[in-house]
Amino acid sequence: MTISHHSTFNQTTEGLDNDFNTYNETVFRFLRIAQISFAFPALISLILNVLIIHSIFSSKEWSKSPTYYLIGNMVTCDIMTASLFIAFSIVSCFTISFFSLDVICRALSVGTGISYMASVLSLTIISIDRYLSILKPFLFPSRNKKLSVIKSVIVLIWIISIMGALPFAIVTGAISGTDSTCGIIYRGVISVIYFLLLTLLLYLIPIITMVVLYVKIYHYWIKGIRRRSLAKNTTSNSFQGKFLTQMERKALIKTLVIVTAAFAIMSWPFLVMALALAISGVGIEDVEKKNTFLFVLCTIAVSCSASTSIANPMLLMKFDKNIHRRCINILAQFTNTFFSHNRRKIFVSYKPNLSPNTLSVGKDGLIG
């Protein structure tokens, strides 16, 4: 009887294990399909961001505007993120060694970290630029001087982002036991400190800074505290008056606030997840083995954060009428050029069969 009970118990346990393994395999199959499917929205993001950055830097006015120059830098970050995820989605289609996957995961994490940090810092500098342009227009003597400072700041942004993202090569990597999943694998005090600093310096402080500055700009406009002499005497404002009207400047601020809000909402799940894993000392591979639901939530958190590169160009094209109008014009020009080229190609390649029995050339050179 005892042997029979043990045999029945073992069979039941094996059945539960098999069901659990089957469930895990189904989940990971779904996650793999999701990774590959992410290439499509990433491709759309890449196309839209390339269109936006072309519209900015092909314009004489926009390429000289510090704000749009910074927006162009942010769009460059989104292009980098989209390109990385397209590459990872393509790699996910193939079976590769664990070592190769680990290298790819670390490179993807560092690259995404660099683009994320540069995007955050660009958004923060944009808010500072808007604040100074509207409330302190005398700070820079000329537009060229301001643009020169902005270019130096952009170089500094990329240096800080590269240095800040390098630790991702240590704390992230491929999860053992799977063939297509990346995650945070390092557990220790260094990981806790790193993600605490990341959350503080690259999320909380930038968000608070942007909120405070945009609120000040809003109050400035609501109260109507404007000096008419500034609009007449400053080079900065004379340029802004020619380039952007007061309504367009307000619309630009509205667009930037919406982009900032979207970034804040979409970024916090990943930071909370990373911070929770670092503080608890639980590795993502443990979450994978013990709680599939939490593992799926972690995957969604990462995807949500990465999707900022998809949301940003859509928001810019939706709410910034200047970008929307110029992108439409560029698309129209490209379409007209493409179709006119094809029409010429078809016309040149078309050779009618002129039979000598049906056509003759007269003395005057006319075909009759």
Automatic annotation (TrEMBL):
Its main location: membrane. It comes from the Eukaryota. Residues 48-316 form the G-protein coupled receptors family 1 profile domain. The keyword Transmembrane helix applies. Keywords: G-protein coupled receptor, Membrane, Receptor, Transducer, Transmembrane, Transmembrane helix. It is a multi-pass membrane protein. The chain crosses the membrane at residues 33-56, 68-101, 113-132, 153-178, 184-217, 256-280, 292-316. PROSITE patterns: G_PROTEIN_RECEP_F1_1 (PS00237), G_PROTEIN_RECEP_F1_2 (PS50262). It is found in: Membrane. One of its GO terms (molecular function) is G protein-coupled receptor activity. This is G-protein coupled receptors family 1 profile domain-containing protein. It comes from Trichoplax adhaerens. The lineage of its organism: Eukaryota, Metazoa, Placozoa, Uniplacotomia, Trichoplacea.
